[in-house]
Amino acid sequence: EELEAMRGTGDWVGPRVYSTIDSWPSKKWYVAEGVKLSALLDVAGMKKDAQKIKVRTTDDHEMTFTVKELLEDTRYYFPKLKENHESAGHIPGSPEEKDEVEAIIALRSAEDSNEEKDMDSLACPQLILGQRAVTEQTNHAFVKNVREIEVLTDPPPSKWAAPKADPLGGEVPVGTEVVLKTESNNDYSKIYYTIDGSEPTLESPIYNWSSSHDRDDLEEINKPVVITEDTIIKAKTVGFGQEDSEIVTFQYTVPSVTVPVTGVSIIPEGDQKLEVGS
C-alpha cells in the first residue's frame, strides 16, 4: 500500500518497456510499472558508504549487486534490441535510439511483452533494470517476489577471477582453436574479449554467450577463437555482485610457411597483357 501510494509522484515509473536478454540467450521485452529503487533506498536512509545490495525473495533466493552496477552505472532500454534477429541473444541488435531507464521495484509487470494490457502483479514486487549494452544479459537479475532488500557497507566488492585460455599462447599452428574459460562456478558471469589488441568493454563480443548446458548447438554459440594469423586476445570476466576482473592478455604467433612453386599457368588461355609485378 505504501508503494502504491507513490503512484503519480516523481518516484513512480511506468508503464514502460525494458529490453533484456536471458542466459539461453534469448531477447525479450518486459513491460512494468513501479517505484524507483533509488527512491525507495533514499526513504530507507541508505548510507553513502554502501557497497553491496542483496535482494531476497519470498522463497529465500538471493541476488547480490554492487551499488555501482545497480544504482550508478547508466542503464538503457534498447528499442532495436531485436534487429538482425528476433530472438537469438548472441546476434547483437542495434544500440541506436537507446533510452535511459532506472531500476525499479515493479508492482505490475509482464514478461515477453511490451503491451501494458498484459501486466499483472503475480511476480511482484519485482526488481527490473535496464541494460548497460545491447548485448548485456540481465534477465536473470529480474528478481521476482521480492521480500527484503539488504544494504551492506562492508566489505567492498571483490573482483571476478580473470579468464584463462587453452592454449595459453605462444607459437601455434594455423587453425588452432582457443577456448576461454572462467574459474567461477557462476554460469551468469561472462567473458568479454577482443582480438585486435584493444581493451575489452561491455560493447565487445561475449565468448560464453550461452549458460545453458542443455543446448545441442552449444558449440555453435560459444565458439572457440580460431587463430589464422598473429593474434592478441584480451579478455575480462564481468558479472553481477563483483567488480570486473583484471584484463588478461594471450598472444599467439603463427609460423610462416614457405610453399615451393611447382608451376605457373594463366587462365583464360591466349595472349595476355600483364603489368610488372602482377
Total helical elements: 3
Tell me what portion of residues adopts beta-strand conformation.
25-35%
Strand order of the largest sheet: 1-2-7-8
Low-confidence stretches: none
Global morphology: elongated
| N-to-C CA distance | 80 Å
How many β strands by DSSP? 16
What proportion of the residues is helical, as a percent range?
under 10%
Order of helices and strands: EEHEEHEEEEEEEEEHEEE
Nearest-integer average pLDDT: 94
Report the radius of gyration as a whole number of Å: 24 Å
Major sheet size, sense and barrel closure: 4 strands, antiparallel
Class derived from helix and strand content: mainly beta
Describe the structure concisely.
The chain has 278 residues and is mainly β. The chain contains 3 helices and 16 strands.
